Predict the structure.
Amino acid sequence: MGKPQKSRPEKEKSSGKKQQMSQAELTPLFFKRKPDRSVSKMAPAHGGIEEEPDTVREPSDQESDSEEAPDIPTYLANLPSKADIKEMLQEVTATLKEEILDIKRDMISLSTRADDIEANQSKLTANQKAIYTHIQQQDRLILELQRQTEDQENRSRRNNIRVRGIPETVQNEEIHAVLLQIFNSILKKEPDSEIKIERAHRVQKPKAAPLNAPRDILCCLHNFALKEQILLKARDISNLTYEDNTIKLFQDISKTTLTKRKLLKPLTDTLRDNNIPYRWGYPFSLTATKDGNQAIIRTPMDTTNFIKKLHLDEMELPGWLPDQGNTLNLSFELQGEWSQATPRRTPHTPRTPRNRTRQSQNQ
């Protein structure tokens, strides 16, 4: 016997129930159930109290939710179409193209500005070298002008003799007679022998001189040769006096020359200790000779060569040699030539697969 066949209404009922069940099973795939906010995710506040389990929903409630939820055709109808996706891609592509174009413009602007900066840097370096060369020339000219000015001042004093030690009791009108007496005694002539003195007067006392020391007397002789003769013979007299006062005679030189000689005093003391003859020259110079080798100092830069030629030990000359720590290092030997690091190239649009396809088609 065959199975009993169901009637048509029963078949429709069973198929409707199957459809409802399939919709109920597919609904969780499209809609995620939101967690119940009433239930706290935190641990219970009081220890020992357990969280109550979720209530089990009855099948009638699930069936009501499945009936309210939209069915599969509605979901499929709400999905974006191919035209929608294409439109979205076109909008994104257009936006990216605009942004890329803006970036390219900025890169071109920066590249142009970098080229301008490099060109200006090259000009500045060339100008700096020219200015540095010009400054060196100006320094040499200024130094030479200072030497010439110093020489002119010393030549204007070449007939002067500075007499030190004459007491202040000698009045101004008596200075001429006292000088004649001292000079004639040096020259071993009669005290009243005539020596032509153009002028004679007292000068300001040096700052380092003792308070009770008399002021120096500066006199100008008419004859330069006679002045040199007096100074030369005065060196041979060990004790030159006037009324029990020690008298000293000096060559009248400019303040600049006197300062330079004081700065070179450690060097002249060394020359004297080694029995090396030396002499001062005009314009300012110091000349010494040892074993037929002649060395001359005119500027501080000549000091090292001077010491080497005379085989002397290295010595410190404060104030004479330039301080290396305070000297500006303007040499360009350590500074390389300005050169462009990398060659510039014009930015271009990157070749996309679509552009390559078009180019191959055109070919």
In short: Strands lie at 160-164, 197-202, 217-221, 241-242, 245-246, 248-251, 278-281, 285-290, 293-297. The domain at 254-317 is CATH 3.30.250.20 (Rec A Protein; domain 2). The mean pLDDT is 78.
